[in-house]
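Q: Trace token order:
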Amino acid sequence: MIADLLPESVVAVEAFGEDGVREFGDGPLFPEEEALMVRAVAKRRREFTVVRSCARRAMDKLGVAPQAVLPGERGAPGWPDGLTGSMTHCEGYAAAALVRAADLASLGIDAEPHAPLPEGVLSAVSLPAEQERLLRLAADHPGLHGDRLLFSAKESVYKAWFPLTRKWLDFSEADIEFHADPPPSDAASAPFTGTFRARLLVPGPMVGGRRVDHFDGRWTATRGLVTTAIAVHHA
């Protein structure tokens, strides 16, 4: 699913469902990673292992020797020299997307359960204008949990933003507008898909000599998940 949202230069590896999570969760950890999991509960260890197994398979597909992926500043993953990427996991799903740094400046991906946000979360992560637009989105696309879509997109925005700036970005500092693709003829069974634009409300990063004031991304809601992805190009 994530691969469909990203340019062809990106390698994405996913673990989906119990079988996929079980397979990827059996992968070994590097000693440096193992040291971080000494006191971790089983669920945390499984998530940590699965998403890194995805990342190492993506490295292999790019011709890079598998390496440890250690959390750095604010938890951002540290990638091998010459690569950039993003990881995500939620219940029953994990994914890693990697690309050569010469091909893209940054990536951000996120996956969430396609279900309503817990009470009170939407008001904490959204702007009034975003809430108004979500009402219209819900009216036009019954069954789409726009609040969860917004949360996922904000996560992808932050993951794309941080490697370029090394700075925090608050939920209120990006204003996101969604566009949904026209439904196909068999809309009853088709996924929701579309694009989004995140307008940065603070000075954006410099990329390729230009100031970036927005990120563009794609999204889908299918198979019980909402997934969002952003690819930041050099120019």
Q: What stands out?
A: The CA atoms of residues 217 and 230 lie 4 Å apart. DSSP finds six helices and ten strands in the chain. The beta strands are 11-16, 83-90, 93-100, 106-113, 174-180, 192-200, 206-207, 210-211, 214-222, 225-232. The first strand starts at residue 11 and ends at 16.
